[in-house]
Design brief:
Number of strands: 4
Strand content: 5-15%
Order of helices and strands: HHHHHHEEEEH
Oligomer: single chain
Number of helices: 7
Strand order of the largest sheet: 1-2
Helix content: 40-55%
Structural class: mainly alpha
Largest sheet: 2 strands, antiparallel
Length: about 180
């Protein structure tokens, strides 16, 4: 899954959470950008796919570090957002608890997206790790890269399964929001 479908899915997840929790509409409007911000790029579980992360990895001896700290490994473990949610449920959230939930939802949506569409290849495993150090599971559905017949280059397309999935999730969550606030 590329960055844009991750962001769309994060917004869908945030809107669905707001609708299901009964929070006011402004929480969805304020939380959606936060969820999207941590669902793709260097502020997401894909931090493990950045130049700075790889620079840190290069300081480790050998290649054993790639088995735990490589792409779609420890930062993609479902336990991090689950632990954060567990700690948040027991805490006094005050007036800004929605901020923490938006961040947890954005990070979680990335992991769910990679569970569904994380195909794997090269040294990247399919899906997401069940344990922080490995044992990956995932559906491996086809993602949004298509090869151009003329140039041979890969380009994103909005007519792929992950784009349809994320678009449908967003429409569903908007429907939930309308129903919850009617």
């Amino acid at each position: 899954m590329d960055g844009n479908p991750h962001r769309v899915f994060a917004v869908a997840a945030e809107v669905a959470w707001v609708a299901a929790s009964g929070a006011p509409l402004w929480v969805a409007l304020a939380g959606a950008p936060l969820a999207a911000a941590v669902s793709a790029g260097p502020t997401s579980p894909d931090i493990d796919n950045t130049r700075n992360w790889r620079a840190v990895l290069s300081t480790f001896p050998g290649r054993a570090d790639n088995k735990v700290l490589g792409h779609r490994r420890i930062t993609h473990w479902w336990g991090w957002p689950a632990l954060a949610a567990y700690l948040l449920v027991g805490a006094d959230q005050g007036e800004i608890g929605w901020v923490a939930w938006a961040l947890i939802i954005g990070w979680s949506s990335h992991i769910i997206g990679d569970f569904c569409f994380g195909k794997g290849g090269y040294d990247i495993p399919r899906g997401v790790p069940v344990l922080p150090w490995g044992w990956h599971v995932g559906l491996g559905w086809k993602s949004g890269r298509k090869k151009d017949r003329e140039t041979g280059a890969y380009a994103s397309s909005w007519r792929t399964a992950d784009r349809y999935f994320c678009g449908a999730a967003l429409l569903f969550s908007i429907g939930l929001m309308i129903a919850a606030h009617s």
